[in-house]
Amino acid sequence: MAARIERVITSGIFSLDGGSWDVENNVWLIGNDEEVLVVDAAHNPESIIKAVGDRRLAALICTHGHNDHINAVGGIRDYLDTQVWLNSADTMLWEAMYDDRPDHDLVDGTTFEIAGTTIRAIHTPGHSPGSTSLYAEDLNAVFTGDTLFQGGPGATGRSYSDKPTILDSIRTKLLTLPADTVVHTGHGDTTTIAAEAGNIS
User: Fold this and answer.
1) Could you tell me which of 39, 87, 185, 192 has the fewest CB atoms within 10 Å of its CB?
2) Has this prediction a pTM greater than 0.70?
3) Contact 127, 162 (CB under 8 A)
4) CA distance 117 to 34
């Protein structure tokens, strides 16, 4: 059975630099009826575990280390046996929440095979040093975390972020993907590479 993409929307708090904000996050599941991987385990482990169901959870992949993208990881790992991937450049963000380390370093070029589909990690720093997008060519999809949204780049006004870096990442690593590639974002609606090309200045 071919891979498909599912979305679970969760709500919670994003905290950084002494501030806190109410946010809704997109949690993406990629797989079929037998196996699945989760991109950005946010806020509510119970709802994510329910969405996984009785499928094998092949991996928890974190596009970056902000708390609102990793704060359900612990609860899921308490219940399901799986492996956690995060780019090591975001270790300081991870360690603000957890005492252990992720299982694997999500480096540029890391690949995952799920339900006959290959997913490739693309390091796209700027929103955070370790921010990483995930490209599934067979699904005509890229999962950008908080690097690229409908309307343009993610925020760069907080610690560990940098606007010139995120713009360079988008221009050189995301806008080079096929124009009709669907962009599955960390928050809000999906978009396409073509639609966002004009929003990068």
Assistant:
1) 192
2) yes
3) no
4) 13
Q: What is the DSSP string of 102-168?
A: -SEE--TT-EEEETTEEEEEEE--SSSTT-EEEEEGGGTEEEEETSEETTEEPP-SSTT--HHHHHH
CA-to-CA distance for 134 and 18, rounded, in angstroms? Answer: 30
- Tens digit of pLDDT for each residue in 19-78? 999 999 999 999 999 999 999 999 999 999 999 999 999 999 999 999 999 999 999 999
In the block, residue with structure tokens 């639609």: 195
> Distances in Å between the alpha carbon of 80 and those of 57, 59, 87?
7, 10, 22
The count of other CB atoms within 10 Å of the CB of residue 81 is: 7
179: left (phi over 0), alpha (psi -120 to 50) or beta: alpha
CA 166 to each of CA 19, 44, 160, 169, 200: distance values in angstroms, whole numbers, following the listed order: 22, 28, 11, 5, 10
Q: Tokens 């219940």, residue?
A: 79
What is residue 119's predicted lDDT score, i.e. its pLDDT?
98
CB neighbours (10 Å) of residue 110? 18
> What pLDDT is attached to residue 201?
72
Q: pLDDT digit string (tens) for 109-129?
A: 999 999 999 999 999 999 999
Report the sign of the C-alpha dihedral through residues 29, 35, 37, 42, in that order.
positive
